[in-house]
Amino acid sequence: MSTAAAYQAGPPEPLAPGEGGDVRLSLPALVRSQPRILFAGGLLLLLVLTALLAPAISGHDPILTDPDNALLAPSRGHWMGTDELGRDLLARVLWGGRVSLPVAFVAVVVGLSVGGLTGLVAGYRGRVTDLLLMRAVDAILAFPALILAIAIVSALGPSLRNAMIAIGIVQIPVYARLTRAQVLQLKGLDFVAAARALGASPLRLVARHLVPNLLNPLIVQVSLSAAFAILAEATLSFLGLGAQPPTPDWGFMINDGSRFLANGAWWLALAPGLAICLAVFGFNWLGDSLRDALDPRLRR
Amino acid sequence: MRRAAVAIVLCLFAAGCGGGSGSNTTGTSSEGTPKAGGTLTFALESELRTLDPVVSTQLVERTVFYQMYESLVTIDDKLNIKPGLATSWVPSSDGLTYTFTLRKGVKFHDGTDFDATAAKFNFDRIQKAASSPRKSELANLDTTEVKDPQTLVLHLKKPDSTLLAQLVDRAGMMLSPTAVQKAGANLGLNPVGAGSGPFTFVEWKRDDHLTLKKNISYWGKQAYLDGITYKPITNDDARATGLKTGDFDIIRVAAGKDIAGIKSDSTLTYKDTASLGFQGIELFHGSGTFSDKAKAQAVALAVDRSQVLKNIFFNVGVISHGPIPPGSWAYDPSEKIYDQVDAAKAKAAATGFSFTLKVANTPDNLQEGQLIKDQLAKAGITANIQSEEFGSILTDTEAGKFEAALVGWSGRIDPDGNMYSWFHTGGGNNQGLYSNSSVDKALEDARTTTDQAKRKQLYDQAQVMLVQDGAYVFINHPVAAQISRSTLHGYVLYPDTMPRFVTVWKS
Amino acid sequence: MAPVAFLVSVAVFLLIHLTPGDPAAIILGEEGSASTIAALHKELGLDQPLTTQYAIWIARVLHGDLGSSLRTHQPVTQAIGERLPATLELGLAALLWSLAVAIPLGTVAALRRGSLLDVLASGFTVAGVSVPNFFIGILLILLMGLALRLFPVGGFVPFTEDPFQNLRHLLLPALTLGTAGAAINMRFTRSSMIEVLGQDYIRTARAKGAPWLRVVRAHALKNALIPVVTVVGIQVGSIIEGALVTETVFSWPGVGKLAVDGIFGRDYPVIQGIVLIAALSYMVANLLVDLTYAYLDPRITYS
């Protein structure tokens, strides 16, 4: 969870002006420098597709109970076995993707938009606004991420929506700092100051100068944030603070399934766990390889 | 392994020193020859909050109380009232006075004597307490009178045939006044010397362990065990596994899914009997959906109890047909009103409606909620599951803010304890606001007479009426079980699920 | 730091008090009735307006009084103090395990850069932070606890009482908590080792014919470990978080388990106290890391 944050150790530093231009390589060039991108991207695409197509390909209803077929081991009729209410586990794992992947998306969007805006305003306005906003951001950073997420979800009430909000809030600081640092750098440039004096609208400055320079670190960060979001959501729902049953949710399924480990029903906790690992691994791998591809210092 | 070593050393020691009174130190461990020595490790399903019986609310606390403290009366395993710290009692003809003759020569663990003054002190403490669940249990108690050191008189406001049953448990537990005053506010944490029972309090380190040791100056037959260590292990799996590995000697409850594994394990002993409680769905009749009796009956007809028993409880326990538990003298096995699930009949009664069913957010409750939802769907009834923290459910039911909730009752020795507060108009547990004047009359009459045959008749009548009305949807009766290592002997199974370790020994 | 600490305290207070669920009802359990619950509200001060409750709380906190648990009436500071050793023991064991794995593996991966070992190690790095730590815990329980029956799957024996049993119970939770950290530390050891090994004085030593091992031990390791030390400091946060779930999975009686129990029991003072202390310790740890970093690398100034 926060290990992922430590692992990220902050996004790659914003580039100095002038460096921005030649680092925005085309996709084929990126892939050539880091072939891993292709594999990671492919994995993620596969996951997204299975989640989207889950209703069509799962074969069984993930919610309807069938008590007479409870706790069946994996077999021809049920590839991943059944749970304690007789529901097909494979169907539930596939449908679980429809819960976890949107969480990643929403959480990242919340963090990116609120955080990015905060950093932008703070950096642009400077002085008191900057001080206030960044103190608020520091307050968020003062908490270990997961603990804050748990506290927020507990306060708002356990539900998938609130889990998304909580994880989004926890993501704000990273994007705020990223954006702010880049804005500050740009502010110090002569041509930017000149443009402002000439009355160029802030929007234009943002679009022409800020966004291109932010693109690279942002792409990497978004990928890593998605990984963190899925992991955090899994932990929250493991603690019962995420999606509520009967909605299939990987973290909750692991907790629920672990009750039956002693009964020998190993498949219940294992299947959703592997799904989480796969999704998180995919995003981490992608972010990792993108970072290596885009970092000018590692350029071979 | 370490415990066995300790036990052997102690046995040798005892043998060498000639042993204490009542202990048998022949050293043979064959079945039937009790052996003194050894410590018992008991894994509890939750941590205690207090060791003061006056403010105690949790069931697990009683598992400690019954070894340390004693009440005026006790029960045997058939739920018959037996002498405890009182050797005999005489009710007056109008039922308003009970005269207790107290046992002589009983000393509390701190060395002070137990007498009528000490007893009065305990009853007064309950009545003077700012808030205590014991107050409603002894609501009919007016005053206590010390006639002489061995005679205590209880004056009641109204005749109450449930009084003795109440005195078996916390309401009648006798603590040493000296110890209580000495401990002050710390009594709930450190009741040193307060009890009079076969085990004395040693220490309590919260979330870690609580230890008791054998009372060698006990007035009755001494315990065999040297001591008991309680450990709170909330995780069901950890408890069951710890039992299998021998880390624990005994546990009180196990999840239904683990019972089969325990039964087939030769190193473990499993015995069960029906307990005093009931579980099912509490319905709100005050207004809304279930103010319509037909809808309540429809739900009662549509729930498939045997499927719930099989899938959720793994067939541990029995189907419930009413509030009176199978172990009670008031139980009538022929009463089976909603025995078979009948979706057709349910549809005929009422169909096409929906309601919110609150369930506690523990995995097995959620599972049960899901199962019931699908069962009701077959009768065209839609149950919307709302999972909440158990405490929230209690608050909501208190305030009448619910339609249906999956809430059960742990049960009381006297059938009145399972019926009056729940189904009498205005009863303390009657949050469903169920009201039926004929039921009220039957329950009131049953309280005033001490003729057990007559009481049984009245309770059966009341049960038939309230079950037919759909006052509560009864699903199952849980069990009281002995779930222990096979090295544990002499355990007597009580339907109130309480262990009484004075007879227990380890081989 | 002070304004941030203030904001943190307000945030903690608000969050916990917004939490739905009535602690009075939970305490009273099935014995609760409308009147006893109301009485308990009064006793616990839960009927006062929020600002008053906050003022009372913050005044007490500044005197070192974090209130008492609503469930057990034990002072929160005492409850945390009793459980802190267990959590510290777990955290320390996890850290040691992660370093014991990370440093040798990271060093070897750096030395054998580009080899199969290196690739596998990189894979482990990413995989290690991709697995939820409660899942690792469950896998370990499945494997070691149930299948192989080597280790107990839960519980705790104090070190002072029985060191051997204590360590037996410690192993699985420590492995669980430390694995993610192992992955991170391995990556950092590797990259900083690579950087150091590329330095001139190292190459000079090699050119002079010194054996790899001596070079590594004498020069590279020490310098490479500086960033690792700072990263370890950052891991205080993840250990705190990871402890929550790990202690719950293994019934380890530490502060994390206390927090989770508190959350489910709506034990406001306990949750508030722990979240506050967790945030403050995390802040202090980060501060120390920043200071250490500034001290070790004179090019960096702390503003």
Structure characteristics:
heterotrimer, A: mainly alpha, MetI-like fold, 12 helices, 0% strand, elongated, disordered N terminus, C: 303 residues
Short account of what is shown:
With 300 residues, chain A is mainly α. Chain A is 72% helix and 0% strand. Chain A has a single domain (25-299), classed as Orthogonal Bundle (MetI-like fold).
Task: Please tell me about this protein's structure.
The complex is a heterotrimer of chains A (300), B (507) and C (303). Chain A is an all-alpha fold and 300 residues long. Chain A has a single domain (25-299), classed as MetI-like fold. Chain A is 72% helix and 0% strand. Chain A contains twelve helices and no strands. Helices cover 32% and strands 22% of the residues of chain B. Chain B contains 16 helices and 23 strands. In chain B, a hairpin with a 5-residue loop joins β5 (86-91) and β6 (97-102). Chain B is globular. Residues 1-30 of chain B have low confidence and may be disordered. With 303 residues, chain C is mainly α. Chain C has helices at residues 2-18, 23-28, 34-44, 50-62, 76-111, 116-130, 133-147, 163-197, 200-207, 212-249, 255-264, 268-296. Helices cover 77% and strands 0% of the residues of chain C. The mean pLDDT of chain C is 77. Classes of the chains: A mainly alpha (300), B alpha+beta (507), C mainly alpha (303). At the A-C interface, α1, α6, α7, α10 and α11 of A face α1, α6, α7, α8 and α10 of C.
- Helical proportion of chain B? 25-40%
Biggest sheet details of chain C? none
The percentage of residues in β strands of chain B lies in 15-25%
The overall strand count of chain C is 0
Distance between the termini of chain C: 12 Å
Helix segment count of chain B? 16
Secondary-structure class of chain B = alpha+beta
Low-confidence stretches of chain C: none
Give the quaternary arrangement of the chains: heterotrimer
Rg of chain B over CA atoms, rounded to whole Å, is: 24 Å
* Major beta sheet summary of chain B: 7 strands, mixed
The N- and C-terminal alpha carbons of chain B lie at a distance of 13 Å
Please tell me the overall pLDDT of chain B: 86
| Backbone structural class of chain C | mainly alpha
SS strand fraction of chain C:
under 5%
